[in-house]
Amino acid sequence: MKRIYYIILSVLTVLFASCADDPIGVSSGDSSDNSAPGKISGIRHEADHGLLTFYWSAPTDADYFYTDITYKVDNKEYSKKVSFHNDSTTIDGFPSASTYEFIFYAVDESGNRSAGESYSASPLEPPHLMVAQTIDIVSNDYGGVLVSWKNESGKKVDVEVSYVGDTEGLLTRTFSPDASVVDNKDNEVKTDLAIPDDNKTFTVVVYDAKGNVTPKKTFNVPVYEYMDIPRDNWEFPGYDANSRYETIGYSSQATNEANDTYPTNGHVVAMIDDDANTFWHASWSSPNTDYPHWFIIDMHQSVLIREVELQRRQGNGGTAKGFRLYTCKDVTVDQNDPDNGYPWEDQGEFEFDPTINDAQKIKVLTSPTARYVKMYFDITHKGTQNYAMFAKFAVWGQRESD
To answer: pTM of the prediction?
Structure first.
């Protein structure tokens, strides 16, 4: 045959050599040439996680066409064919760091095969097995659990976490992280996990890019209640629906913002009605108020506070850009004295972005237990207008008692 014909065939060979390894089974050519080419020689390798890169010297036969590398993985035979243009190749996807046996054959243009050259090699530990050894699952104070692991291989893996939800049955969460990130921390699993459980079971498997999967690894982890604390019995002490003036529970409210569609607009209670279209607004007329603004809420139960949630008046960015949070435990208080009648605990100062409509959750890292909450908007928190105005206030955490 003409050499140009085999060059064309060699291009096709390069194409199939670049694909995933094929099960063995290649028919030989039909030719009167029955002379086998010389053997592959000088074989060496470099090991990486889950893969091997081979190098060799090809025979000098003029009609040498390609190298055929055969091997077994889990008793299944494979063949990797490499064009005469190349004297190296990488075989990926080994499921373990075991020693594998390879046979290298030189194949000529007529399909004659050389005597096989045997070679043994072991890849480094595959990435899915490496990652599986580092998996950890711990309780998340902010609901559900946190899954963490290390991936020092630099290879892509998928981490799959399965569990039975509170109401939805078997659920699966799959993480497909960037292979370049070694420490993968704080991967949250929260879906349908609100009911407390001292011994929730989570099952983890890890896949590599070739679909190799680890044995299941099981974790029994406590799951804490984490919820938007119900607001149906919340109370602003001294609330007066008909007054704009300060009471023992808030600095002021703009009752004149109310209308037929939203009769609670301007009132402090609008922040806890689950309607983002209604809002509390500090009084701007009779009286015309300025900072500081504030309000107190009696939740009528003891709550372990993890986050507070605020949402601005929709479409208006003039509200406060921060606040100071005070809490008070479920103790006897003098509600007639909002400043000194409560043993307030200062939980710190927090930022709020008044430029976005979406509700914002702000973590309270001190995690106080409280019945009473005081939100204080000082002059230092003043935004572009003189008034605090919010559509929603909520508390997220765990109920200590009903």
So the answer is: 0.76
